Amino acid sequence: MSADASLKFKRLLLTGAAGGLGQVLRPRLRARCDVLRVSDLAELGAAASGEEVVQAALQDRAAVLPLLDGVEAVVHLGGISTEQPFDDIVQANIIGTYNLYEAARIHGTRRIVFASSNHVTGFYRQDEVIDATMPVRPDGYYGLSKAFGENLARFYFDRYGIETVCLRIGSSFPEPKDRRMLATWMSYDDLERLVIASLSSPVVGYSVIYGMSDNHHVWWDNTPGKHIGYRPQDSSEPFRAAVEARQPAWLDIQDPAVVYQGGGFVKAGPF
After folding, report:
1. Cβ within 8 Å of residue 271, ≥6 positions away
2. Per residue in 88-119, pLDDT tens?
3. Which of 217, 223, 234, 221 has its CA nearest to residue 183?
4. Does residue 3 register a pLDDT over 80?
5. Which CATH superfamily is domain 9-267 in?
6. So which residues are the catalytic ones?
7. Which residue, of 45, 226, 236, 251, is most buried by count of CB atoms within 10 Å of its CB?
8. Contact 85, 271 (CB under 8 A)
9. How would you class 63 by CB atoms within 10 Å of its CB: exposed for 0-12, middle for 13-18, buried for 19 or more?
10. Which helix (H) or strand (E) is 35 found in, with range?
């Protein structure tokens, strides 16, 4: 954990708390603040000690506005996390993210950790190494919506001073599922390290960093995000033998999912 791991916040908001990564971070963030406000469109269960539970749709502006009241910082995981029809993506990921930032502006929230995605740059090739300063190349409507969110975050920093760390999350699961994830995998512990570093770094302004563990095989150079203070401690390497045993050594380089960093997302749809 980072040197600032013991830093405790007054009230944090976690959106998308019922999702896969939301469920992982919910108990971990609860230990980092006096009050954790959790929100999702889905059922969240009863509030634990030190929690406030609010069920709300991000596209409902009237519901989102009070969600930010009294909130010091936000970990924004809410929205659609897979490739879906554009009309659905717009509501949750574009209108919903705007509603969140506007509510943050109104209530004076100082920092947002925004769950962006590696799919913002999914149409770069797997034989390239890129960093967050390079132009976006979204691989679908989902990636496009996350690119919008990153631009929105930059605008709200430039105009209103709301700091944001955009996390271009790779693949955060208990273990990598395939050869692609040997490059994109991030452990749950490293996810927590990245989020806590993004919350506790003294000055972040507007920053973008790729969410990955300390993997041997990488497509992303996080040098431009070193000021965040994120130091991954896990690696996909212990899983390599099992992953390679499940997949052929030579993949079909005519398959766009093999050629491009976005994997299967580059072929998703049409809807």
Report:
1. 84, 85, 86
2. 999 999 999 999 999 999 999 999 999 999 99
3. 217
4. no
5. NAD(P)-binding Rossmann-like Domain (3.40.50.720)
6. 142
7. 236
8. yes
9. middle
10. strand 33-40
